[in-house]
């Protein structure tokens, strides 16, 4: 696995852990440049298509969990036969490692860790996710003491693999709830039991049940009473001892019913508040058959109780007058009536109450309200254990525990699972994203990529998604296909260049633009007015050539410009002429001296423009003609 790039971004660097179903690697996310943990499903499970489907679906659902005490799930993917989950990388130790190092974790620290675990499980339960594999191996503790619960979703996906048909979950047998071990109905209270076992191990340094085989351990969960942790560690506070014992009750109805309830009591212990975890002593108020009580009998202590017959002969007989005898007789008769009534009531109740059984009706497929009425008509309790997505209409009973036809005592619970309707999910928005990333997002959402088509686009870059079907946020079934249209970039078109020679610049420009070309003008000045009528004299791209649409064609044409005025002597007139100036025009118009200065003889010292001899230019008048300055 090391050296294989997963999803074109995740590179496994080293193996950091292994469980019954998967191997965990520390990896680098090259897209976001960060460390992540990649959990790769083992090959034997990857060949089970049903397991892989559940693995992906539940992991995707777990990705929606957001809690500081839950390891974040970033991505879920498949590459060839490799199925993997990308998770937050947590630097620290597992709780199992900490227990091995410390043997017994102090009660204060146990409470602190347990509160954080309970918060994580509470978040999962609110989102209808049962962890089902709470154990110290799946609990990470950072160096800062932050607890992170991991493996959400994978445990739920593995519910089809039981202890009898796979040895890959045997390591969890120490933390199984009795209902898990029996393979019966499992609800949120199974996580409460497992957390109780984890806390038991933290404070005692050992699990409550151990044996050579997982089956033997499972039987102990079902049959054997738990040794109170306080008997193994006298430093465990009584309140914590009672809390753990309540959490690991074998019957779910006797445990904490919600993680919120357990969390409240954990916080009370943390704050040194008193718990109200008293056991109900039902025997004191139980209806019973007993002898009439003689109002004159007195018991000085408990040791006398039950030995009246032995003491009867030793006690002096009290002397009673007739009035007292009459009173005693009346009281005795009254008590006898009460006893007879109690006995009659007891037998009537036994015959028509507790001993009466009822068959669980067949309610699978019925609407919840109808099923509830039918169950209650049989004097049974209708209890909604969970709600799950299914292809059955919302509100329909999809499972029932015990099964229909099972005979149970009246007032027993009939637990059901109610359908939440079709398993639908929102389609992610991948428009404007490159194709490979869009595929990963769709697959990670539990959907599949459908048909991919391509078309040109002037607005969407090549390789990016132009549109999708179904559209973003549409509700679809798990595994539905998402069709994509991908951009090929701007389409390149070729056009034929028309011949615009001799046409006016206006007409020529219109013709070229209509052909899909761009125009640049190149006017040339001329003093020949006749050339102005020639129109376009040259085009940079020749007629009939094939060029890309939008190519620029430069048009050359003549523009008439009136020539400048000449002075009387044929030279160009300088409107800025100034007599005696260095750049002035010579009086007799021979030529202009450029910036010349007068020499001793009055000749101009600069070169003369336009050639030829001329009078001294720029100097004082000289009766003798000057020569051209060099």
Automatic annotation (TrEMBL):
Alphabetized SUPFAM superfamilies for the sequence: Protein kinase-like (PK-like)
Biased segments, Gly residues type: 583-594, 602-617
Catalytic activity: L-threonyl-[protein] + ATP = O-phospho-L-threonyl-[protein] + ADP + H(+); L-seryl-[protein] + ATP = O-phospho-L-seryl-[protein] + ADP + H(+)
InterPro entries: Kinase-like_dom_sf, PASTA_dom, Prot_kinase_dom, Protein_kinase_ATP_BS, Ser/Thr_kinase_AS
Membrane-crossing residue ranges in chain numbering: 327-349
PROSITE patterns recorded: PASTA, PROTEIN_KINASE_ATP, PROTEIN_KINASE_DOM, PROTEIN_KINASE_ST
List of residues binding ATP: 39
Enzyme class: transferase
Alphabetized UniProt keyword annotations: ATP-binding, Kinase, Membrane, Nucleotide-binding, Serine/threonine-protein kinase, Transferase, Transmembrane, Transmembrane helix
Stretches the record annotates as Disordered: 523-542, 563-630
The organism's place on the tree of life at top rank: Bacteria
Gene Ontology molecular-function annotations: ATP binding; protein serine kinase activity; protein serine/threonine kinase activity
Boundaries of every PASTA domain copy: 354-420, 421-488, 491-559
Matches recorded under Pfam families: PASTA, Pkinase
Residue stretches making up the Protein kinase domain: 10-275
EC number(s) from the headed UniProt entry: 2.7.11.1
CDD domains with a match to the protein in the record: PASTA_pknB, STKc_PknB_like
Ranges annotated as biased composition (Low complexity): 570-582
Name listed for the protein in its UniProt record: non-specific serine/threonine protein kinase
Protein source organism: Clostridium luticellarii
Gene giving rise to this polypeptide: prkC_1
